[in-house]
Design brief:
single chain, 162 residues, mainly alpha, two-stranded antiparallel sheet, 5 strands
Length: 162
């Protein structure tokens, strides 16, 4: 399991190599889809923190915070990590985990081709983990609107069968 910002930086490196732009909305949805595929294919999370159900779909808060300064414009800088004691930022290392790299290589480029709000529409379909989390919150407390990995895994298992 990895820091979501490390995976986001890997997405940016690969998108920029193809001269493609990635916005915050794109990034959040692509992270979510890669995480789901990784859960299904490797039986473990790609990202160590849980996704949250926000208005425009699943969100990794640390990635949102890292890139919120770009608004709806393309992201042009990599996420940095902060040492809270020294109050210094530093770059994330390169992703070298074979399973994580394989998931990204297998699935990233198909999602980079989909327009931003089409990605949002996909996550908002009835029965998706996002929509089920939103619906459940109407009658059950879910502090932080966390989307559970077992819900994501079950959903992606259903996609595999379809």
């Amino acid at each position: 399991m990895f820091d979501a910002r490390l995976i986001a930086n890997e997405i940016l490196h690969r998108a920029w190599a193809e001269q493609l732009e990635v916005t915050q909305i794109d990034m959040q949805k692509i992270l979510y889809f890669l995480h789901g595929h990784h859960l299904l294919e490797h039986g473990q999370p790609l990202i160590k923190s849980e996704f949250e159900a926000w208005d425009f779909g699943p969100v990794q808060r640390s990635v949102y915070d890292a890139f919120k300064g770009f608004g709806d414009q393309p992201i042009t800088e990599l996420a940095q990590k902060l040492d809270p004691v020294k109050r210094l930022t530093s770059p994330f290392p390169k992703l070298v985990d074979n399973a994580a790299v394989a998931t990204i290589e297998r699935h990233l480029y198909k999602y980079l081709e989909i327009p931003s709000f089409a990605l949002v529409d996909i996550t908002h379909q009835p029965g998706t983990p996002w929509s089920r989390t939103i619906e459940s919150a109407k009658s059950h407390v879910n502090v932080g609107m966390r989307i559970k990995n077992d819900l994501i895994s079950t959903y992606f298992e259903g996609l595999k069968a379809a």
